[in-house]
Amino acid sequence: MRILLVGGTGLIGSAIRARLTAEGHDCILVSRHATARDRRHINLDLARATDASTWKNHLAGVDAVINAAGALQGQDMQGVHVAGSAALYAACESAGVRRVILFSAIGSNVDALSDYSRSKREGEAALMARDLDWVVLRPSVVVGRSAYGGSALLRGLAALPILPVMPDTAAIQPVHLDDVVETVLFFLRPDAPSRVALDLAGPERMDFSDAVALFRSWLRWRPAYRLRLASWAASAAYRAGDIAQMLGWATPINSTAQAEMRRGATGDPGLWRQVTGLRPRDLGAALAREPASVQERWFARLYALKPLIFGVFGAFWLATGIISLSAGWNIGMSLLREGGLQENIAALTVTAGALADIAIGLAILWRPLSRYGLWAALIISLTYAVIGTLLVPRLWADPLGPMLKIWPVIMLNLVAMAIREDR
Question: Is the alpha carbon torsion for 211, 249, 323, 418 positive or negative?
């Protein structure tokens, strides 16, 4: 089959693509994270593809469409879940592509507490209104060997010596990624039923903190002390996630997640089992079959450190620039005079360096420019080391180590570059 997979770079989409390719299907990916070297990958932002004609050429020869695209927060939600998806469904109807599988969210059809849930429900309605052989899948928290979003958060929290327990959270029913992929393969069969909506929920209900404890055990760490956070502390964490989201960083902790966690992620897997014949696997048993490797332990530990690394590193560069223009001005000027620079050139050098530091700090903190900010930070750190050595070589012998400290900064820079990618 020739299958158009929208949102094929996410946790679910990438697993579906790998399985479809292994099964011999011709899988075409649509996402805004396209790579120029992959001719089977179409660079298209679903939120902006709101005209059905946009999809016409991409649907030529396609037998089925899988829409696994999603946005947790921000203005893209309406475009991704409703407007862009509705245009895709209209194009499918016109092009005669009958089979369309949509990934929605568990519980969104019952109690839509957030813009995320409401947009997911509207997206379902847009598909169900079309003359298509549609299938709506509503997964709970999806876990598997890969990790992203909520499943990555479970691992990151499992690495903490103290487990913060958020107040006012409901139960979840984690579903294994392999079961989700098997369900997609089932509904791609020619004889598979259509016009059906299913909850993809695991067999066991559990508190979110209990799911974290399962992952901590899987990672071979002793149980962590559980600290129930006060409401104000939990709200502060969610607001911090909102700020990170505004800066372009994908985070599963934000105000949308707060509303969704209050509702929980539970459902009845009975109809799913009845229709497909699948038996959803238990989370504990699934983890036991795949022992955690050292890579998993590294990821879990780095997950919580990543926002601190970028936050502290960006703030460091901002602070150095601001200090150079204020309290540290005279110190910087005296060092450059000692190196033999004239007054006006020294002033220009200090000002330019300070402004560069501020620009680098802002770039590191803003996700779309963070890669360039990190490269600029690396280059300017090496430049400072060279200029400092040429102008004021005695700084290498300074007991406070201003020249020696450049190298730990460079090492942190390299760490940030290594862990920047989200998927």
Answer: positive
Residues in Cβ contact with 243 at an 8 Å cutoff, skipping those fewer than 6 apart: none
Q: What is the mean pLDDT of residues 96-109?
A: 92
Compute φ and ψ for 419, nearest 5 degrees.
-110, 10
Q: What is the pLDDT of residues 197-242, one digit of tens each?
A: 999 999 999 999 999 999 999 999 999 999 999 999 999 998 998 8
Rounded average pLDDT over 403-408: 94
CA within 13 Å, CB half, 380: 19
The rounded distance, in Å, linking the Cα atoms of 195 and 355 is 59
pTM, full prediction: 0.86
Contact 86, 126 (CB under 8 A): yes
Q: Do 269 and 179 contact (CB within 8 A), yes or no? A: no
Q: What confidence tens digit (pLDDT) does each residue in 176-205 have? A: 999 999 999 999 999 999 999 999 999 999
3-state secondary structure the chain: CEEEEECCCCHHHHHHHHHHHHCCCEEEEEECCCCCCCCCEEECCHHHCCCHHHHCHHHCCCCEEEECCCCCCCCHHHHHHHHHHHHHHHHHHHHCCCEEEEECCCCCCCCCCCHHHHHHHHHHHHHHCCCCEEEEEEECCEECCCCCCHHHHHHHHHCCCEEEECCCCCCECCEEHHHHHHHHHHHCCCCCCCCEEEEECCCCCECHHHHHHHHHHHCCCCCCEEEECCHHHHHHHHHHHHHHHHCCCCCCCCHHHHHHHHHCECCCCHHHHHHHCCCCCCHHHHHHHCCCCHHHHHHHHHHHHHHHHHHHHHHHHHHHHHHHHCCCHHHHHHHHHHCCCCHHHHHHHHHHHHHHHHHHHHHHHCHHHHHHHHHHHHHHHHHHHHHHHHHCHHHHHCCCCCCCCHHHHHHHHHHHHHHCCCC
